[in-house]
Design goal:
By secondary structure, this protein is of the alpha+beta class. The chain has nine helices and 17 strands. The chain has a domain of about 80 residues: Alpha-Beta Plaits (2-Layer Sandwich), CATH 3.30.70.1560. A hairpin with a 2-residue loop joins strand 15 and strand 16. It is elongated and about 65 Å long. Pfam families: PseudoU_synth_2, S4.
Length: about 290
């Protein structure tokens, strides 16, 4: 799928912004990294840095909360079938189950791409790379999200079709949305809906405006990635070729930025990246 934004490509200078380097390490999103820097939690070569715009390379010693920044892995993306009743967060103050309670051991540190409401189920993307997360969430990328929706109420197909032009509810603009009636049952109806910018509870609010009550909401796709036959609570890694060819997510970070690549390790602690000694054979291989 084509996009307006540039693909994630190698940075020829080997430099990148400090906040981006932290996000690339999989610790957090770029926005969260910027907040950590502003709070004085990040040092570069032993000096506390307060600007996320500082350019850094693999030669800089970066720490977060006194611990060395871990070496980044290659960008990875996973499909996860989120069940209803599970919260998309690391910890829930109300003690509800989170997606991390369902993920198997042996996975890298993962961040959700966007959010699904508590009672929404279906495809949720997870990634180990904060910059990939940001890229997939950007409205300007225009990734199409598709849903199946079960509703209670009288469906007006003309009003559904009109959603393609967008609408405004209580001063908030929504759409355009591609909405179609799939089938009717005795008491409910199933709709298919596609949108490119998912605002908070957008589908529920739009359908409520049309006099319909949503009683089941399933995300079936995100861009070229499909929920398919993935069972509830299951997770599956997206092949590297699909990431590269269909989503513009390129080669390992080692090739793109000059930061060494770490071996995948579940819940690995923050640690300093070990750089291999430069030999004549290795030097020739890089040329």
């Amino acid at each position: 799928m084509a996009s307006e934004d540039k693909e994630i490509q190698p940075e020829k200078s080997g430099k990148q912004r400090l906040a981006k380097a932290i996000a690339r390490a999989g610790l957090c999103s770029r926005r969260e990294a910027e907040a950590w820097i502003a709070e004085g939690r990040v040092t570069v070569n032993g000096e506390t840095v307060l600007s996320p715009a500082l350019d850094v390379t693999a030669d800089h010693r970066i720490t977060v909360d006194g611990r060395p920044l871990p070496a980044p892995e290659r960008p990875r993306v996973f499909r996860f079938h989120k069940p209803a009743g599970v919260v998309v967060t690391a910890r829930d103050e109300l003690g509800r189950r989170t997606i991390y309670d369902l993920l198997p051991s042996g996975l890298p540190r993962l961040q959700p791409v966007g959010r699904l409401d508590l009672n929404t189920e279906g495809l949720l993307l997870l990634t180990n790379d904060g910059e990939v997360k940001r890229s997939l969430e950007l409205p300007s990328r225009g990734w199409l999200r598709c849903y199946r929706v079960r509703v209670f109420g009288t469906v007006d197909e003309a009003r559904l079709a009109a959603l393609k032009d967008g609408l405004t509810i209580d001063g908030f603009s929504y759409g355009p949305i591609d909405a179609k009636l799939e089938r009717k049952t005795e008491s409910n109806a199933w709709l298919t809906m596609g949108l490119r910018e998912g605002k908070n509870r957008e589908i529920r609010k739009v359908l409520e405006h049309l006099g319909l009550m949503v009683n089941r909401l399933i995300r079936t796709s995100y861009g070229p990635l499909q929920l398919g036959n993935l069972t509830r609570g299951a997770v599956s890694e997206v092949p590297r070729g699909v990431l590269r060819d269909q989503m513009g997510i390129g080669e390992p970070i080692k090739d793109r930025t000059g930061f060494a690549k770490a071996k995948p390790r579940a819940n690995r602690p923050l640690q300093k990246a070990r750089r291999k000694p430069r030999t004549e054979e290795n030097a020739n291989r890089r040329r």
